[in-house]
Amino acid sequence: MALCLLAVILTFWQHTARRGGRDSAPERLAQRVVWPLQAVITSATEWSHDVVVSLTRSRSLTQENRELREQVDRLEAEKLQLHAYYLENKELKDALGFVIAGDAKGVPARAIGRSSSPGGTMLTVKSLDGRTIEAGNMVRTQKGLLGRVVTAQKTVGEVLLVSHTDHAVPGVVQRSGDQGMVYSLESSDYTEPLLQMEKLRGEADVRVGDIIVTSAISEMYPPNVPIGVVIRLQTAPASSRTLRAVIKPAADLGKIDYVLVVRGAR
Question: What value does the mean pLDDT take over residues 137-151?
Fold first, then answer.
């Protein structure tokens, strides 16, 4: 009942004020109290909306930043891998400067092990590009002949080195054309692996410093592959009418890393 009476009074008050062209006192009071409160509520609502949007964007940006960091990490890893490939390729090219890309006969390989045998050290090599290695293939470095593959299984081969007692190759003095057989020199006078060239006639033109290369009469190797350099001349033990040339191998037999396996050399 009191509320109804209050409503009637307020309504009458409002109509009376409107006839006079002004707002009633209760209306002015409401404007002064309620409207600022409404403005505060509206501002708080808008602020809350902005906060929600900002948080949503922040989570989205955080996810994007995480994905970008992961992408950068992947690219950095790929960059490092490519640099590693570049260094390995450069090392390979430095070691095998004569290798021509796409050469069907040249298979780049790397030494992966050594083993002992009664006649000397055997070398194990593995193809770097997946091509097969075959028995009879010549093996060399940029500097010269290493030997030949005697057994092979797909990409891996066992190499009989020129310093092995079972290895022999016809050689020729590059300067004069004199020929002889080159094989391992077994002597306690030398600490490094050396070779010897015999069956040189006494009148043969061979000197210290001469380069010995493979002969065209070889059935195993192509001609003109460097074997080594003459470091000493001796009279052959079997006959005073023949010479023996002591040869230092062109290839460093004590430090073998990258090699070239030449398929179908002959």
Answer: 94
Single out the residue of 248, 238, 142 nearest to residue 198, CA to CA: 238
Do 90 and 83 contact (CB within 8 A), yes or no? no
pTM equals 0.63
Instruction: Indicate left, alpha or beta for 237 from its phi (over 0: left) and psi (-120 to 50: alpha).
Output: alpha
Backbone angles phi, psi at 138, to 5 degrees: -75, 145
Considering the segment(s) 168-256 as one domain, its CATH architecture is Beta Barrel (2.40)
124 CB-contact burial (10 Å; exposed 0-12 / middle 13-18 / buried 19+): middle
Contact 9, 25 (CB under 8 A): no
Per-residue pLDDT band for 62 (boundaries 50, 70, 90) equals: confident
Q: Which two tokens stand for residue 130?
A: 């997946």
The type of residue at 166 is D
Domain ranges of the chain: 28-95, 106-161, 168-256
Answer whether 150's CB lies under 8 Å from 220's CB: no
**Which among 210, 198, 204, 201 is positioned nearest to 250, based on CA atoms?**
210
CA atoms of 152 and 141, how far apart (whole Å): 19
